[in-house]
Amino acid sequence: DGGITQSPKYLFRKEGQNVTLSCEQNLNHDAMYWYRQDPGQGLRLIYYSQIVNDFQKGDIAEGYSVSREKKESFPLTVTSAQKNPTAFYLCASSIPGEGGTDTQYFGPGTRLTVL
Amino acid sequence: KNQVEQSPQSLIILEGKNCTLQCNYTVSPFSNLRWYKQDTGRGPVSLTIMTFSENTKSNGRYTATLDADTKQSSLHITASQLSDSASYICVVSDRASGTYKYIFGTGTRLKVLA
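ok -> C-alpha coordinates follow
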Protein backbone atom coordinates (compact mmCIF):
# COMPACT_ATOMS: atom_id res chain seq x y z
CA ASP A 1 0.00 0.00 0.00
CA GLY A 2 3.03 2.30 -0.15
CA GLY A 3 2.85 5.50 1.83
CA ILE A 4 -0.87 6.03 1.50
CA THR A 5 -3.21 5.54 4.42
CA GLN A 6 -6.97 5.51 4.44
CA SER A 7 -9.22 5.56 7.44
CA PRO A 8 -11.36 4.08 8.65
CA LYS A 9 -11.10 0.63 7.08
CA TYR A 10 -14.81 -0.02 7.66
CA LEU A 11 -17.49 2.64 7.95
CA PHE A 12 -21.19 2.37 8.57
CA ARG A 13 -23.57 5.20 7.87
CA LYS A 14 -27.26 5.76 8.27
CA GLU A 15 -29.23 7.02 5.32
CA GLY A 16 -29.30 10.80 5.15
CA GLN A 17 -25.97 11.30 6.88
CA ASN A 18 -22.83 12.77 5.40
CA VAL A 19 -19.57 10.96 6.04
CA THR A 20 -15.93 11.84 5.36
CA LEU A 21 -13.28 9.34 4.29
CA SER A 22 -9.68 10.19 5.07
CA CYS A 23 -6.72 9.79 2.69
CA GLU A 24 -3.17 10.77 3.60
CA GLN A 25 0.07 10.22 1.67
CA ASN A 26 3.72 10.81 2.57
CA LEU A 27 5.09 10.10 -0.90
CA ASN A 28 5.29 13.79 -1.85
CA HIS A 29 3.04 13.10 -4.84
CA ASP A 30 1.27 16.00 -6.48
CA ALA A 31 -1.67 14.09 -7.91
CA MET A 32 -4.31 12.30 -5.85
CA TYR A 33 -7.43 10.40 -6.84
CA TRP A 34 -10.58 8.89 -5.41
CA TYR A 35 -12.14 5.79 -6.94
CA ARG A 36 -15.17 3.72 -6.21
CA GLN A 37 -15.12 -0.06 -6.71
CA ASP A 38 -18.31 -2.11 -7.01
CA PRO A 39 -18.55 -5.88 -7.57
CA GLY A 40 -18.17 -6.82 -11.23
CA GLN A 41 -17.18 -3.31 -12.28
CA GLY A 42 -13.91 -1.60 -12.92
CA LEU A 43 -12.73 1.25 -10.71
CA ARG A 44 -14.61 4.44 -11.44
CA LEU A 45 -13.09 7.87 -10.91
CA ILE A 46 -14.92 10.17 -8.49
CA TYR A 47 -12.56 13.15 -8.16
CA TYR A 48 -8.92 13.88 -8.82
CA SER A 49 -6.49 16.62 -7.86
CA GLN A 50 -3.32 17.41 -9.73
CA ILE A 51 -2.11 20.08 -7.32
CA VAL A 52 -2.94 21.65 -3.98
CA ASN A 53 -6.08 23.80 -3.92
CA ASP A 54 -7.27 22.38 -7.23
CA PHE A 55 -9.46 19.38 -8.03
CA GLN A 56 -11.58 18.13 -10.91
CA LYS A 57 -14.70 16.00 -11.18
CA GLY A 58 -14.31 12.47 -12.42
CA ASP A 59 -16.90 10.29 -14.10
CA ILE A 60 -19.19 9.85 -11.08
CA ALA A 61 -18.78 12.97 -8.94
CA GLU A 62 -22.47 13.51 -8.15
CA GLY A 63 -23.14 13.17 -4.43
CA TYR A 64 -19.47 13.52 -3.47
CA SER A 65 -17.23 16.43 -2.50
CA VAL A 66 -13.50 16.80 -1.86
CA SER A 67 -10.94 19.31 -0.68
CA ARG A 68 -7.19 19.60 -1.23
CA GLU A 69 -5.88 22.12 1.29
CA LYS A 70 -2.63 20.22 1.86
CA LYS A 71 -0.47 18.21 -0.49
CA GLU A 72 -0.60 15.21 1.83
CA SER A 73 -4.36 15.07 2.33
CA PHE A 74 -7.34 14.52 0.04
CA PRO A 75 -10.50 13.78 2.07
CA LEU A 76 -13.69 12.61 0.37
CA THR A 77 -17.14 13.45 1.71
CA VAL A 78 -20.01 11.20 0.75
CA THR A 79 -23.13 13.30 1.02
CA SER A 80 -26.74 12.29 1.48
CA ALA A 81 -27.25 13.17 -2.18
CA GLN A 82 -25.34 10.04 -3.21
CA LYS A 83 -28.15 7.55 -3.78
CA ASN A 84 -26.13 4.33 -3.67
CA PRO A 85 -23.05 4.97 -1.53
CA THR A 86 -22.35 1.42 -0.34
CA ALA A 87 -19.05 0.50 -2.00
CA PHE A 88 -15.31 0.05 -1.56
CA TYR A 89 -13.52 3.40 -1.84
CA LEU A 90 -9.91 3.62 -2.95
CA CYS A 91 -7.59 6.60 -2.76
CA ALA A 92 -4.49 6.81 -4.95
CA SER A 93 -1.63 9.16 -5.64
CA SER A 94 0.85 9.46 -8.47
CA ILE A 95 3.86 11.36 -9.66
CA PRO A 96 4.56 12.03 -13.35
CA GLY A 97 6.89 9.58 -15.00
CA GLU A 98 8.82 9.78 -18.24
CA GLY A 99 6.69 9.20 -21.32
CA GLY A 100 3.48 9.02 -19.35
CA THR A 101 4.59 6.13 -17.19
CA ASP A 102 3.33 7.61 -13.95
CA THR A 103 2.19 4.83 -11.67
CA GLN A 104 -0.67 5.14 -9.28
CA TYR A 105 -0.10 3.96 -5.72
CA PHE A 106 -3.25 2.90 -3.95
CA GLY A 107 -4.27 3.02 -0.32
CA PRO A 108 -5.79 0.03 1.48
CA GLY A 109 -9.35 1.22 0.91
CA THR A 110 -12.40 2.04 3.00
CA ARG A 111 -15.51 -0.10 2.84
CA LEU A 112 -18.58 2.05 3.34
CA THR A 113 -21.91 0.46 4.17
CA VAL A 114 -25.14 2.39 4.39
CA LEU A 115 -27.59 0.88 6.85
CA LYS B 1 -16.09 4.67 -26.30
CA ASN B 2 -12.84 3.80 -24.53
CA GLN B 3 -13.12 0.36 -22.99
CA VAL B 4 -10.94 -2.30 -21.40
CA GLU B 5 -12.19 -5.88 -21.41
CA GLN B 6 -10.59 -8.73 -19.50
CA SER B 7 -10.97 -12.47 -19.79
CA PRO B 8 -11.65 -14.82 -18.27
CA GLN B 9 -13.79 -13.31 -15.54
CA SER B 10 -12.52 -15.94 -13.11
CA LEU B 11 -10.02 -18.76 -13.19
CA ILE B 12 -9.12 -21.67 -10.92
CA ILE B 13 -5.78 -23.44 -11.25
CA LEU B 14 -3.65 -25.83 -9.23
CA GLU B 15 -0.55 -24.64 -7.45
CA GLY B 16 2.54 -24.85 -9.66
CA LYS B 17 0.63 -24.48 -12.92
CA ASN B 18 0.97 -21.59 -15.36
CA CYS B 19 -1.86 -19.36 -16.53
CA THR B 20 -2.48 -16.47 -18.91
CA LEU B 21 -4.91 -13.62 -18.45
CA GLN B 22 -6.14 -11.52 -21.36
CA CYS B 23 -6.85 -7.82 -21.79
CA ASN B 24 -8.33 -6.21 -24.91
CA TYR B 25 -8.76 -2.46 -25.17
CA THR B 26 -10.21 0.14 -27.48
CA VAL B 27 -8.57 3.15 -25.80
CA SER B 28 -7.25 5.80 -28.15
CA PRO B 29 -4.93 7.59 -28.09
CA PHE B 30 -3.00 4.96 -26.18
CA SER B 31 -0.37 6.02 -23.67
CA ASN B 32 0.48 2.99 -21.56
CA LEU B 33 -0.92 -0.21 -20.08
CA ARG B 34 -0.57 -1.47 -16.54
CA TRP B 35 -1.35 -4.67 -14.75
CA TYR B 36 -2.28 -4.53 -11.08
CA LYS B 37 -2.74 -7.26 -8.48
CA GLN B 38 -5.48 -6.69 -5.93
CA ASP B 39 -5.85 -8.91 -2.89
CA THR B 40 -9.34 -9.15 -1.45
CA GLY B 41 -10.19 -6.06 0.59
CA ARG B 42 -6.92 -4.32 -0.28
CA GLY B 43 -5.77 -1.67 -2.72
CA PRO B 44 -4.28 -2.65 -6.10
CA VAL B 45 -0.51 -3.02 -6.39
CA SER B 46 1.31 -2.36 -9.66
CA LEU B 47 2.95 -5.35 -11.35
CA THR B 48 4.06 -3.99 -14.72
CA ILE B 49 3.69 -0.96 -16.93
CA MET B 50 4.31 -0.86 -20.67
CA THR B 51 4.38 2.00 -23.12
CA PHE B 52 3.50 1.88 -26.81
CA SER B 53 6.97 0.75 -27.88
CA GLU B 54 7.34 -2.12 -25.41
CA ASN B 55 6.30 -5.68 -26.25
CA THR B 56 7.07 -7.47 -23.01
CA LYS B 57 7.84 -6.70 -19.39
CA SER B 58 8.61 -9.09 -16.56
CA ASN B 59 8.33 -8.83 -12.80
CA GLY B 60 9.47 -12.06 -11.22
CA ARG B 61 7.01 -14.81 -12.17
CA TYR B 62 4.75 -12.28 -13.89
CA THR B 63 5.30 -11.50 -17.59
CA ALA B 64 3.14 -9.03 -19.46
CA THR B 65 2.99 -8.74 -23.24
CA LEU B 66 1.57 -5.98 -25.38
CA ASP B 67 0.50 -5.92 -29.02
CA ALA B 68 -0.36 -2.30 -29.74
CA ASP B 69 -1.47 -3.14 -33.29
CA THR B 70 -4.20 -5.55 -32.18
CA LYS B 71 -4.73 -3.69 -28.88
CA GLN B 72 -4.23 -6.79 -26.81
CA SER B 73 -2.22 -7.55 -23.70
CA SER B 74 -1.68 -10.66 -21.66
CA LEU B 75 -0.35 -11.41 -18.20
CA HIS B 76 1.37 -14.77 -17.83
CA ILE B 77 1.93 -16.21 -14.38
CA THR B 78 4.54 -18.94 -14.13
CA ALA B 79 4.63 -21.64 -11.46
CA SER B 80 1.65 -20.26 -9.60
CA GLN B 81 1.64 -20.02 -5.81
CA LEU B 82 -1.20 -19.85 -3.32
CA SER B 83 -0.34 -16.20 -2.75
CA ASP B 84 -1.16 -15.46 -6.39
CA SER B 85 -4.85 -15.81 -5.53
CA ALA B 86 -6.18 -12.32 -6.18
CA SER B 87 -7.86 -10.15 -8.79
CA TYR B 88 -5.71 -8.94 -11.66
CA ILE B 89 -6.69 -5.65 -13.19
CA CYS B 90 -5.66 -4.26 -16.57
CA VAL B 91 -5.54 -0.46 -16.76
CA VAL B 92 -5.03 1.53 -19.94
CA SER B 93 -4.14 5.20 -20.01
CA ASP B 94 -5.04 7.60 -22.75
CA ARG B 95 -3.87 11.12 -23.09
CA ALA B 96 -6.34 13.71 -24.16
CA SER B 97 -6.18 17.43 -23.67
CA GLY B 98 -2.80 17.15 -21.97
CA THR B 99 -4.02 15.07 -19.02
CA TYR B 100 -3.95 11.34 -18.48
CA LYS B 101 -7.04 9.29 -17.89
CA TYR B 102 -7.01 5.75 -16.56
CA ILE B 103 -9.55 3.22 -17.84
CA PHE B 104 -9.87 0.13 -15.64
CA GLY B 105 -10.91 -3.34 -16.68
CA THR B 106 -13.25 -5.33 -14.45
CA GLY B 107 -10.47 -7.75 -13.51
CA THR B 108 -9.85 -11.49 -13.57
CA ARG B 109 -10.32 -13.26 -10.26
CA LEU B 110 -7.67 -15.98 -9.91
CA LYS B 111 -7.88 -18.76 -7.36
CA VAL B 112 -4.86 -21.04 -6.86
CA LEU B 113 -5.61 -24.32 -5.13
CA ALA B 114 -3.16 -26.52 -3.23
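The two ends of chain B are 41 Å apart (CA to CA).
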